[in-house]
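Box 4.2: Ligand-aware structure prediction
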Amino acid sequence: MNTNKQQKENEIILAIETSCDETAAAVVQGGQEVLSNVVASQIESHQRFGGVVPELASRHHTENITFVIEEAMEKANITFEQLDAVAVTEGPGLVGALLVGVNAAKAVAYAHQLPLLPVHHISGHIQAARLLRPWRYPALSLVVSGGHTELILLKDEGEYEVIGQTRDDAAGEAYDKVARTLELPYPGGPQIDRLAEKGNKTLDLPIAWLESDSFDFSFSGLKSAVINTLHNAKQRGETIRPEDMAASFQHSVVTVLTEKTKRAASQHHVQQVVVAGGVAANNGLRSALRDAFSDSDIELTIPPLSLCTDNAAMIGAAAHVQWKKQHTANWDLNGVPGLALT
Amino acid sequence: MKMLAIDTSTHVMSVGVGEDNKLLGEYTTNFKKNHSVRLMPAIDHLLQELNIQPADLDGIAVAKGPGSYTGVRIGITTAKSMAWALNIPVYAVSSLAVLAQNAKYFSGFISPFMDARRGQVYTGLYKADNGVVQLVEKDRIILLDDWLRLLKDKDKPVLFLGQDWDMHEHSIKEALQDKAWNGDFSSATPRTGELLQLAYTQGAPLSAHEVVPEYTQLTEAEKKWQAANKGKKKHE
Ligand SMILES: [Zn+2]
């Protein structure tokens, strides 16, 4: 990188995130203090299609990107002279969407000859925890979102080891598919969560434990079981309360997520468990995890909702680790839809 | 007034820098390789050669489409984000108008065009007058057959410019016979020297926020949705 800013610990980073359908920018200081966190959601625009339309998401990002960055800079009350670096989500995500953020970040960094920090989207979700309190290692992170269900071990700062992952659908994907089956509006996850609170676990749906020593997950069987149960009930002329189906489905998902997290935490003697990703906004999951760790020495960190769903403050937090390791990118940085975490 | 110009709307990537009435430098390549990876290094290379700092720039010109959705977005996003960060205006110019500039001393009609799949092309009709190219029929996406019918009625020579001549040569020659001309490989290549010329002479300065691509059509999902919901509103 053609810049020689002094390496400091309370650096100010402008972070940009456009991996899916949120155009987001934030200013974060020292990987800890959020000076601003702006998210322009596109949900309304995609809702009528029942899911994110990638080309439409890219178009909205292009329309919104400078407005969002400007608002983040203004809310933080920061000038370009005060900025130490520009960070951006490199991947994974929708390629066309990622490209808008990456090219905007490069242009802003280039204009002011600032270092460019590439950030992995999932490391962003995980590092959102640093905005609440300092890490205690070794730590474990349960990452649950529309595209991810993973158990990740952190032995030290920024060192990620995937010890478990989904073999088919991500948890969030299962939520969306079941919501569609129940004819709930998009996005389905929060809808099921809300219904589940009003229902009872009356139905016996499968829980995929897999091999006894495995930290992997599987949700496709559960999804099929929901569809079959509804179908069979209809054939018999019976009705199933959507509230009860939601509660039963959510019970299966939350039980396996909580149990495996607890088991992995004790097996790896971790000091802290961090829950990350959009599904971490799910109330059923939040309370089950709180119960599971209530009488344990392990510190449980569940970020507030605004830091669970996609945002750029988490990218700024993860960029702090990149900053300290001096992992900068060159001007040829590209968006990488299938970027690996490790 | 120092101006940077960017065109990534087709496989051709062109970056240029102009100062008042002078082209200081231009870097143009014509091969299929990722614009997202190559654009910023190209800008950096050219500005360094010219010993120009980003902060020395007074404006940024960009080809706004039509063209490849992703290519146009890379150019537009880079141009508007850099312009916003430097607090300078953007001059957004039609990608087809940039191509038409290559024929500014041709006496007939000019049809810059790009293949738009499924028998369609992005095109518009231009005409040069003493080196100044003017728009006759606005840019659009249209079935090539429909476009050729429209041109045939004009009964004048038409010069076709673009990278997709080979793909459509047969249909064009069949429809227009000896009235159809095609440009040589140089005039078929969009170049930022011409984009700068347009920006300096006809360009209207826009604030970075206002600059958006010219796609000439909705997304597939929106088109399908509109078709499926046609008339629904009226009954509501
Ligand atoms: Zn995410």
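In the box above, the bound molecule is zinc ion. Chain B touches chain A at residues 34, 36-41, 43-44, 54-55, 69-70, 73-74, 76-82, 84-86, 208-209, 212-213, 215, 219-222, 225 (CB under 8 Å).
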